[in-house]
């Protein structure tokens, strides 16, 4: 997507510098900064500190980290050590382990001398695949928006609500939940997006930054406003992303997603999840019982970052001194609350049969 008229991916390989470049998302939406990642420790810090964030982008970043590891030491022991080191950075998003497993499985049979080049080629492949997956998700989600638009008076926008940031900076490009929005806007369909702030890290501000850069009508709202808007008929469709989805269609996403799904169910609003297939965890059935939920620093709750009156980016404390904070980063939305899953292969019900019908090859591999 574009920033100030220039196309960017969220990460890219600089062939002149022979190194990975990332957009350091800690400073968005107020400052656009690019960072070069040079060491395995810097890769790990980029993931843990959410300089890169979003399940698909974390997976692509991990693939480039494995490429660096193989350049430094292509031995089996170094490969396994890098896998373990990177896998420990964030526990919930399944794309991290998916990318690391894919790298190790591809590289293990190769001679040590071949691994560095093969690992870098695979990282490029994973990044390019993510772009195409998200474009395809958008094409299928666009059909839902078209159906709603066809039932509205001419010129009245389709009103969508999204939670967290499942945009292009959470993927390599296009985004998941935002991809249908971009494609609807580009097709000339009027839309308006309600953007949840998504406390505690206010990732909705990133979505607003993206949508505003693309010229899409949107409003930034508090996390607690969505149910009210649904009660008053001001939301036609909810689309969120996902960091891990079970084989039966339970969806693990940013904390607060479950409450949006409950409100949507109570008000008859369709609740869809944009789902890249690498985010499906075929080994897990019951998301509430089986998915580990990352507990992040209480400082994300007690402090908030923003732009001061003088334009400086600063952090302020919002709680009384000594107040402890609890910070579960994700929650699980049971499949019974999900209207459908928008994947790169089409839209299906949030059930085991629905997912297996679109991805019989992956379901069969799990059973093998």
TrEMBL record:
The catalysed reaction is:
5-(methylsulfanyl)-alpha-D-ribose 1-phosphate = 5-(methylsulfanyl)-D-ribulose 1-phosphate
Q: Which EC numbers does the record give?
A: 5.3.1.23
The cross-references to InterPro entries, in alphabetical order and at most eight, read:
IF-2B-related, IF-M1Pi, IF_2B-like_C, Initiation_fac_2B_a/b/d, M1Pi_N, NagB/RpiA_transferase-like
Q: Do the record's keywords include Isomerase?
A: yes
Q: Which domain of life is it from?
A: Bacteria
Where does the record place the catalytic residues?
243 (proton donor)
- Which Gene3D superfamilies does the UniProt record give? translation initiation factor eif-2b, domain 1, Translation initiation factor eif-2b, domain 2
Q: Which Pfam families match?
A: IF-2B (PF01008)
For this UniProt entry, the molecular function terms from Gene Ontology, in alphabetical order, are: S-methyl-5-thioribose-1-phosphate isomerase activity
Enzyme class per UniProt: isomerase
Enumerate the residues binding substrate. Answer: 53-55, 90, 203, 253-254
The UniProt entry's GO biological process terms, in alphabetical order, are: L-methionine salvage from methylthioadenosine
Q: Which UniProt keywords apply?
A: Amino-acid biosynthesis, Isomerase, Methionine biosynthesis
Pathway membership: Amino-acid biosynthesis; L-methionine biosynthesis via salvage pathway; L-methionine from S-methyl-5-thio-alpha-D-ribose 1-phosphate: step 1/6
- Which first-to-last residue range defines the signal peptide? none
SUPFAM superfamilies found in the cross-reference section: NagB/RpiA/CoA transferase-like
The site feature described as Transition state stabilizer is recorded at: 164
Return the similarity comment.
Belongs to the EIF-2B alpha/beta/delta subunits family. MtnA subfamily.
Function noted in UniProt: Catalyzes the interconversion of methylthioribose-1-phosphate (MTR-1-P) into methylthioribulose-1-phosphate (MTRu-1-P).
- What's the protein called, per UniProt? Methylthioribose-1-phosphate isomerase
